[in-house]
Amino acid sequence: MKAIVKKMIANLHAKPSQTSELVDEVLYGMTVEIIEETNHAWVYVKTLYQYEGYCQKDSLLIDDEKTESWLEEASFVIIQNFADVLCEPKIQTAKLATLVKGSIVRYLGPTEDSKEWAQIQLVTGQIGYTRTQWIQRRLTQNILPEHKFRENVVQTALSYLSTPYRWGGKTPLGIDCSGLCSMAYLLNGVVIYRDAKIVDGFPIKQIPFEQIQKGDLIYFPGHIAMYMGEDLYVHSSLGGNQVSTNSLNKEHPHYRNDLATTIIAVGSLFG
Questions:
Q1: 178-199 per-residue burial string, b: 16 or more CB within 10 A, e: under 16
Q2: Which parts of the sequence belong to the NlpC/P60 domain (predicted)?
Q3: How far apart are CA 263 and CA 18, in angstroms?
Q4: How confident is the model over 159-201, as pLDDT tens digits?
Q5: Of 104, 180, 186, 263, whose Cβ has the fewest other Cβ atoms within 10 Å?
Q6: What are the tens digits of pLDDT across the range 120-140?
Q7: What is the pLDDT of residue 243?
């Protein structure tokens, strides 16, 4: 059985309990496969990026046919940190939903009166309106030259600067280290593993540290960061409590010895 996330964020937990560890967040419009129905309130699911956890049923629209249709037709993604979806194409109207960056919607086209507004369809079938500049076609693969992809993925990661650290999070409301890197890649059309390690079957491959370039990933014990070039990296740090930048250069004021001296691998899409 397949399902679509119909809430702003669907939490994935380690156990079928709201008080258990948050292992991931699946965003509005993303789809999941239901592996097991645990009880009347919880299901065990697998995401399209192969992550698994327990999700509350009321966060999902469970319907194979609608999910397949949604996968084919919902081809746009929210790129604004927070985007209101309104009942009419004007700001003086009621709100249907607020979506976070990375949420997926079905684009129906511009409004007749103004290209400033885009008409979209929600998971529920409701028609709403949001700013045209807040959505773009969802990338499902990298079609850019290497140098352009590297630049884009870094800029995407930097768009989360100052976002609070949240274990298991991956939105502008709160994000963890692997959430930051995986979302930066996902928004640029590449699905990587959503944890701080290199895993077979995903496109990131280990390379020598000497070959590191902008957009590559730096792995530490239990942590991951994205290299920005010039010895700098961006990451969501539990120690720093937010998304920030640091340096591998001892002479830099933002040098972190605890990380610079514990690098265990470097991974690249272009290894």
A1: bbbbbbbbbbbbbbbbbbbebe
A2: 147-267
A3: 34
A4: 999 999 999 999 999 999 999 999 999 999 999 999 999 999 9
A5: 263
A6: 999 999 999 999 999 999 998
A7: 98
CA distance 33 to 38: 14
Q: Say yes or no: do domains 2-73 and 146-268 share a fold.
A: no
Question: For residues 235 and 180, what is the distance between their CA atoms, to the nearest angstrom?
Answer: 7
What residues are annotated to the active site? 177, 223, 235
Which numeric CATH code is attached to 77-137? Answer: 2.30.30.40
Q: Which CATH number fits domain 146-268: 3.40.50.2000, 3.20.20.140, 1.20.1180.10, 3.90.1720.10?
A: 3.90.1720.10
Domain 2-73: assigned CATH number: 2.30.30.40
What amino acid occupies position 127?
I
State the residue for tokens 């930051």.
Answer: 180
Identify the sign of the CA torsion 92, 133, 124, 184: negative
Rounded Cα distance, 160 and 235, in Å = 9
CA 247, 248, 254, 255: dihedral to nearest 10 degrees? Answer: 170
